[in-house]
Amino acid sequence: MEKFPASVAIQVLPHVDTDEEVVRIVDEVIAYIKSTGVNYYVGPFETTLEGEYDQLMDIVKECQYIAIKAGCPQVAAYVKISFKPEGGVLTIAQKVTKYH
Domain Thiamine-binding protein, which positions (predicted)? Predict the structure, then answer.
C-alpha cells in the first residue's frame, strides 16, 4: 500500500455536564493519540497530528470511540486535514517553532 503524507488537526468536544468531565475525556483521547506513536502537538483548542493519511484517518475515527468509552454519551469533533499525496505537507515544527 502506498503511503501519503498528511497533517490533521482534531478538536474533540464531549457533550458532558462539567468542565472537569470535558478535560478528563479529552485527556483520555490525547493519551490514545500519544499511544499511536505519531508525531503530535497539543494546542489549547485542538491537537495536530502528522503522519500517513490512512493511519491518521483511523486515529480520527478511533478518537470518537475513545470519548464514548470514557463515558461521554455524545461527542462532536472538528477535523482539519492537509493532504498532499506527492509529499511536502508543512510539518508541525515548520508551522510553530518560530513562535516558541
Answer: 8-99
Unique residue bearing C-alpha cell 494546542: 43
Domain that holds residue 60: 5-99
State the Cα–Cα distance between residues 3 and 6, nearest whole angstrom: 10
| CATH code, 74 | 3.30.70.930
What are the pLDDT digits (tens) for 54-89?
A: 999 999 999 999 999 999 999 999 999 999 988 889
Task: Quote the number of domains for the chain.
Answer: 1
pTM for this entry: 0.92
